[in-house]
Amino acid sequence: MKERYLNRIELLQGTLDLLILQSLLWGPRHGYGLSQSIRMNSGEILKVDTGSLYPALHRLEKQKLIAAEWKVSENNQRTRVYQLTGKGKKQLASERSRWSQLSGAIAGVLNRARSGGDA
Fold first, then answer.
1. Per-residue model confidence as pLDDT tens digits over 7-34
2. Which fold has domain 2-114?
Protein backbone atom coordinates (compact mmCIF):
# COMPACT_ATOMS: atom_id res chain seq x y z
CA MET A 1 0.00 0.00 0.00
CA LYS A 2 2.80 2.42 0.92
CA GLU A 3 4.51 1.78 -2.43
CA ARG A 4 1.35 2.90 -4.23
CA TYR A 5 1.90 6.41 -2.88
CA LEU A 6 5.63 6.63 -3.62
CA ASN A 7 5.07 7.47 -7.30
CA ARG A 8 1.97 9.54 -6.71
CA ILE A 9 2.22 13.12 -7.92
CA GLU A 10 0.45 15.57 -5.65
CA LEU A 11 -1.01 18.41 -7.66
CA LEU A 12 -0.96 21.90 -6.32
CA GLN A 13 -4.43 23.45 -6.21
CA GLY A 14 -3.69 25.96 -8.98
CA THR A 15 -2.22 23.28 -11.21
CA LEU A 16 -5.25 21.05 -10.79
CA ASP A 17 -7.53 23.98 -11.60
CA LEU A 18 -5.50 24.63 -14.77
CA LEU A 19 -5.78 20.98 -15.82
CA ILE A 20 -9.54 20.93 -15.20
CA LEU A 21 -10.11 24.15 -17.15
CA GLN A 22 -7.97 22.89 -20.04
CA SER A 23 -9.81 19.55 -20.13
CA LEU A 24 -13.16 21.32 -20.21
CA LEU A 25 -11.98 23.48 -23.12
CA TRP A 26 -12.15 20.24 -25.17
CA GLY A 27 -15.81 19.80 -24.24
CA PRO A 28 -18.24 19.22 -21.36
CA ARG A 29 -17.47 16.27 -19.08
CA HIS A 30 -18.63 14.64 -15.89
CA GLY A 31 -16.22 14.21 -13.00
CA TYR A 32 -15.03 10.72 -13.91
CA GLY A 33 -14.57 11.79 -17.53
CA LEU A 34 -12.42 14.72 -16.38
CA SER A 35 -10.28 12.47 -14.25
CA GLN A 36 -9.83 10.04 -17.17
CA SER A 37 -9.03 12.87 -19.59
CA ILE A 38 -6.29 14.23 -17.33
CA ARG A 39 -4.85 10.73 -16.80
CA MET A 40 -4.88 9.80 -20.49
CA ASN A 41 -3.56 13.15 -21.75
CA SER A 42 -0.69 13.03 -19.26
CA GLY A 43 0.48 9.65 -20.50
CA GLU A 44 -0.99 7.91 -17.43
CA ILE A 45 1.24 9.95 -15.08
CA LEU A 46 -1.24 12.35 -13.48
CA LYS A 47 -3.98 10.64 -11.50
CA VAL A 48 -6.54 12.85 -9.84
CA ASP A 49 -8.52 11.16 -7.08
CA THR A 50 -12.06 12.12 -6.19
CA GLY A 51 -10.91 13.64 -2.90
CA SER A 52 -9.04 16.31 -4.90
CA LEU A 53 -11.22 16.54 -8.00
CA TYR A 54 -14.65 17.27 -6.57
CA PRO A 55 -13.57 20.01 -4.14
CA ALA A 56 -11.76 21.67 -7.08
CA LEU A 57 -14.87 21.38 -9.27
CA HIS A 58 -17.03 22.93 -6.54
CA ARG A 59 -14.51 25.74 -6.03
CA LEU A 60 -14.34 26.48 -9.78
CA GLU A 61 -18.13 26.44 -10.01
CA LYS A 62 -18.41 28.85 -7.09
CA GLN A 63 -15.96 31.17 -8.89
CA LYS A 64 -18.18 30.90 -12.01
CA LEU A 65 -15.27 29.54 -14.08
CA ILE A 66 -17.29 26.42 -14.84
CA ALA A 67 -21.00 25.63 -14.90
CA ALA A 68 -22.64 22.33 -14.02
CA GLU A 69 -25.96 20.72 -14.79
CA TRP A 70 -27.54 17.37 -14.10
CA LYS A 71 -28.02 15.13 -17.13
CA VAL A 72 -29.03 11.54 -17.69
CA SER A 73 -26.17 9.38 -18.98
CA GLU A 74 -26.33 6.74 -21.71
CA ASN A 75 -26.83 4.04 -19.07
CA ASN A 76 -29.75 6.03 -17.62
CA GLN A 77 -28.00 7.40 -14.53
CA ARG A 78 -28.05 11.00 -13.36
CA THR A 79 -24.65 12.61 -13.69
CA ARG A 80 -23.37 16.13 -13.17
CA VAL A 81 -21.78 17.52 -16.34
CA TYR A 82 -19.34 20.43 -16.15
CA GLN A 83 -18.51 22.94 -18.86
CA LEU A 84 -16.25 25.95 -19.19
CA THR A 85 -17.83 29.41 -18.96
CA GLY A 86 -16.66 32.54 -20.77
CA LYS A 87 -15.02 33.69 -17.55
CA GLY A 88 -13.35 30.27 -17.30
CA LYS A 89 -11.91 30.60 -20.82
CA LYS A 90 -10.36 33.96 -19.88
CA GLN A 91 -8.97 32.48 -16.66
CA LEU A 92 -7.54 29.52 -18.60
CA ALA A 93 -5.72 31.86 -21.01
CA SER A 94 -4.28 33.78 -18.06
CA GLU A 95 -3.25 30.61 -16.20
CA ARG A 96 -1.65 29.12 -19.34
CA SER A 97 0.40 32.30 -19.76
CA ARG A 98 1.56 32.18 -16.14
CA TRP A 99 2.33 28.46 -16.45
CA SER A 100 4.45 29.13 -19.57
CA GLN A 101 6.42 31.80 -17.71
CA LEU A 102 6.92 29.58 -14.69
CA SER A 103 7.93 26.48 -16.65
CA GLY A 104 10.29 28.59 -18.79
CA ALA A 105 11.92 30.03 -15.68
CA ILE A 106 12.34 26.55 -14.15
CA ALA A 107 13.75 25.20 -17.43
CA GLY A 108 16.22 28.09 -17.48
CA VAL A 109 17.51 27.16 -14.03
CA LEU A 110 17.64 23.44 -14.81
CA ASN A 111 19.37 23.97 -18.16
CA ARG A 112 21.95 26.24 -16.58
CA ALA A 113 22.61 23.61 -13.90
CA ARG A 114 22.96 20.91 -16.61
CA SER A 115 25.42 23.00 -18.61
CA GLY A 116 27.63 23.48 -15.57
CA GLY A 117 26.76 27.09 -14.84
CA ASP A 118 28.01 29.00 -11.80
CA ALA A 119 27.05 27.60 -8.44
1. 444 456 689 999 999 999 999 999 999 9
2. Arc Repressor Mutant, subunit A (1.10.10)
